[in-house]
Amino acid sequence: MIDAHIHLDDIRFDNNRGELIVQALEAGITHFIVPAVTCSRFEKLKNLSKQYNCIKASYGLHPYFIDQHSQQDIDLLDVWLSKNTSCAVGECGLDFFLKELDKDTQLFYFEAQIALAKKYDLPLILHARGAVDAVFTALKQADYFNAMIHSYNGSIQQTKGLLDKGIKFSFGGAICHPKAHKLHKLVQYIPSDAIMFETDAPDQNLYPNFREINSPINLIKIIERYSKLKQLDFIDSCNNALQVTRQFFKIPVHDR
Ligand SMILES: [Zn+2]
């Protein structure tokens, strides 16, 4: 299994990161895709990816933190991508759910990062909260669709268009909520060859433990829930997602 989206560099893991990684590896989770959120965290993430081969770093500027980004950060990201191994560009995208985040500023950083993904021929790790249409419009304008949307929650109509362009989706703890009926229908609709799984830890803990810190090991519960929703064998679900995730982030089979 690969966790397609986890913030293992987060300070909330500083005390027990090693333990959690060992626990996850023993349970069969082989890799963690860890997207950066601000320039200030690039160095730490780089060091972690050197320390743990299972951590695959992606560098980018998250829309939540636009007040911490500056225009020079785009240049810095450009230089950083030219000098360091990055499995993707992101986490980037748009968040129209939080009203205090200026839309135009978000778009500026997002479009600049799409251009960088294009420049370095890297996939995009996208955040699209309340902004699936706007994210898709930006991708269309750049004519670049090598992308995955994490913690995806769009309509079937939106999903059709994205699937046609080969965009991938990852699902996390939200699918474990017994009342997430719309999300369950969405998961059932999307073919397995477009689906990855994530914990988004330390955020998005599983129902009903929302107040606690999410853990990498919960990836298993997420895939179990998915298997039931999709009436698939657990091992088949793991294998399908493993293939999709490896291909998307170009993680070779012998990489351990
Ligand atoms: Zn994230």
Topology:
Blueprint: E1 2-3, H1 17-26, E2 31-35, H2 42-51, E3 55-58, H3 71-83, E4 89-95, H4 103-119, E5 124-129, H5 132-142, E6 147-149, H6 156-164, E7 168-171, H7 181-189, E8 195-197, H8 219-230, H9 234-249
Parallel strand pairs: 1-2, 2-3, 4-5, 5-6, 6-7, 7-8
Helix pairs in contact: 3-4, 8-9
The protein binds zinc ion (ZN).
Residues 5, 7, 35, 91, 200 line the site of zinc ion.
Structural class: alpha/beta
**Structural shape:** globular
Order of helices and strands: EHEHEHEHEHEHEHEHH
- The count of DSSP E runs of length 2 or more, i.e. the number of strands, is 8
User: Could you state the oligomeric state of the chains shown?
Assistant: single chain
Can you summarize the main beta sheet?
5 strands, parallel
CATH superfamily: Metal-dependent hydrolases
Label the CATH architecture.
Alpha-Beta Barrel
Low-confidence stretches: none
CATH class categorisation = Alpha Beta
Beta-strand share of residues: 5-15%
Spatial strand arrangement across the major sheet: 4-5-6-7-8
What do the pLDDT scores average to?
97
Given the structure, what is the number of helices? 9
Rg:
17 Å
Write down the domain tally: 1
Which hetero compounds are present in the coordinates? Answer: zinc ion
CATH topology term = TIM Barrel
